[in-house]
Amino acid sequence: MLRRPSLTKSRKVELLILAIAFLGLLGFSLASFFIPKGQALTANVILKGELIHRLSLQEEKELSVTTDIGELEIHVHNGGVAVTSSPCASQFCVHSGFKSRAGEAIVCAPAGLSVYLEGGNVSEVTL
To answer: 106, 81 in Cβ contact below 8 A?
Structure first.
């Protein structure tokens, strides 16, 4: 009788991170389906539940965000935003591509970072 090899602890952690990332993407996708769509004017960059940047999507900008796992690069251009570089293994955030509509999001679960797009006036917010 052949024994099935058991999962190592590091493999279990990797699978847990992938499951969390998948559920996060699924949740944001479902939320974006029910939220009215429109031209996104701002991108909220959230790290570990805290808003760290609110970016106008009308100005081109490159932003580097330091997380526990390393640097993520965020690029704002052509009225939208994309994560262009991430140290995470899955690269879901990079492969999710360019987002430009209110209600859309980019999530990097291993880094604890999300970028959520919403309509509104950037000048009304002070951080």
So the answer is: yes
Strands across the sheet with 113-118, in order? 50-56, 42-47, 113-118, 105-108
Write down the pLDDT at residue 112.
93
Residue 32 within any structural domain of the chain:
yes
Q: What does the alpha-carbon distance between residue 18 and residue 15 come to, in Å, rounded to a whole number? A: 5
In a domain, 108, yes or no: yes
Contact criterion met (CB below 8 Å) for 65 and 47 = yes
Report the alpha-carbon distance of residue 99 to residue 115 in Å, rounded.
Answer: 9
**Pairing state between β 50-56 and 61-67:** unpaired
Domain carrying residue 36:
9-121
pTM score: 0.63
Lowest mean pLDDT among 26-40, 54-68, 77-91, 103-117: 26-40
DSSP H helical segments within the chain, as ranges? 9-34, 92-95
* pLDDT score of 125 more than 50: no
